[in-house]
């Protein structure tokens, strides 16, 4: 009887709680998984690699589409700082759209995406600096230079007044010497002799002629 009663008690005892399921834990604390996902997501920065995935029909696999959706956690700042090629986050966002996934299977669309990416790399720095760097204030227009002052005319020196020219009058001739030597009076005896002598000379000249 005791054995039967003990068996009934054990049969009616409540079930013990089941042990919790063992959670998978990476042996290296997830380091290997982190590096593999980081490498894969950075490969998405290459349009040629996306074209390869589209042509090999990876985008038709629902598990792969779910994996792309799961990788969106890399857009959080604590994970984004490890990414060296930020274009991968842009293409990861585009890959959430089925139309983009289908379009990337065409080689022309792959070339277009690659060309636009190149133009972005080429002009991104200059375009970004235009919005970041403060624009210099416009320089004031230089004031027009005043016209050069004309040099003063040469000062005219006053001409000294010319005194009226005085015409030099010829000096009065000195008193003419008397024809008579020593100023003898005409009635003197010496004068008479002279008159005579002149008359004798005239006569001689006539005779000679």
TrEMBL record:
Name of a matching Pfam family: Med31
Biased segments, Low complexity type: 165-181
Keywords annotated in UniProt: Activator, Nucleus, Transcription, Transcription regulation
Compositionally biased intervals (Pro residues): 135-164
Alphabetical list of InterPro entries matching this protein: Med31_sf (IPR038089), Mediator_Med31 (IPR008831)
Superkingdom of the organism of origin: Eukaryota
Annotated region described as Disordered, given as residue ranges: 1-26, 133-209
Subcellular locations according to the entry: Nucleus
Chief localisation class: nucleus
Regions of compositional bias (Basic and acidic residues) in chain numbering: 193-209
Subunit structure and binding partners: Component of the Mediator complex.
Role of this protein: Component of the Mediator complex, a coactivator involved in the regulated transcription of nearly all RNA polymerase II-dependent genes. Mediator functions as a bridge to convey information from gene-specific regulatory proteins to the basal RNA polymerase II transcription machinery. Mediator is recruited to promoters by direct interactions with regulatory proteins and serves as a scaffold for the assembly of a functional preinitiation complex with RNA polymerase II and the general transcription factors.
Family note: Belongs to the Mediator complex subunit 31 family.
The protein's name in its UniProt record: Mediator of RNA polymerase II transcription subunit 31
